[in-house]
Amino acid sequence: MQSTNVAHPILAVRGVSKTYEGGFQALKSIDLQIARGEIFALLGPNGAGKTTLISIICGIVNLSAGEITVDGHDIGRNYRAARSKIGLVPQELTTDAFETVFDTVSFSRGLFGKNKNPAHIEKVLRDLSLWDKRDNKIMTLSGGMKRRVLIAKALSHEPELLFLDEPTAGVDVALRREMWEVVRKLRENGVTIILTTHYIEEAEMMADRIGVISGGELILVEEKAELMRKLGHKELILHLQEPLSDVPPGFSDYDLSVSADGSMLTYSYDTNAERTGIGSLMRRLAEEGIRFRDLSTKQSTLEEIFVNLVEDRP
């Protein structure tokens, strides 16, 4: 599937496939372009190919076909230049337990051949609220602080593209929201961010665009707002004055359902339709003497859209 056209992308993935020994095809001709400064969320069930795609882009796994460029550098022909543009924050909390925060982050910078820059390391630690922990050994930190250290390590060599693999896995709700603020601040500082997440709410809160991967295929890439508009549907919920046992006869033209206790009548309609049918429905209900004491509307969540997309795959 072709992604939305992006002028001068920082990341371009073209026709990328991955087949392992034994014949298992983990990725099938992936095309994707990422614009500078955007937050892109990659969603998909377990085994869909998210981690494989990230691992290939980061040079951890070799691709079977296709090409990838990062800021114009081919990940195969010019690996060092391409990889220097990338920061990767893995899901696993693997850090040097006996090193201090400052030394750990500084060492990561050196791995990319960068000269020492204590001022940059200080800025990264301050941005991540880690400066007051700079002399603490990693083993003494909380899980949330360790995750921040992983981000600091990934930012130590001044990458322009940051991958966050399940950045809030295993953290509580309060810390998750703190991490969202960290991600937004990174974007404000000019870092392009690609995140994988199992928390649909996370993508809905932060992402500019959403990609859905299933069975090794990128089945959809869309602006978040446009995705919600295209695939979302709304429900009009009528709280009835008198309960109904079933949908009244003669209303087969409307997508209606009655709640189990008969107190609510729900009308589902297409947000993109030229006419929603609400006006005619209300008139028909009035003619039939069906009265309601209150009404409300509900729009599809991104989670519902995602589940429907994946379930609809053959």
From TrEMBL:
PANTHER family: ABC TRANSPORTER ATP-BINDING PROTEIN (PTHR42711:SF10)
Superkingdom, natural source: Bacteria
Molecular-function GO terms, alphabetical: ATP binding; ATP hydrolysis activity
One Pfam assignment: ABC_tran
Occurrences of domain ABC transporter (ranges): 11-240
Alphabetized UniProt keyword annotations: ATP-binding, Nucleotide-binding, Transport
InterPro entries: AAA+_ATPase, ABC_transporter-like_ATP-bd, ABC_transporter-like_CS, ABC_transporter_ATP-binding, P-loop_NTPase
Entry keyword annotation includes rRNA-binding: no
Protein name: ATP-binding cassette domain-containing protein
Family the UniProt entry places it in: Belongs to the ABC transporter superfamily.
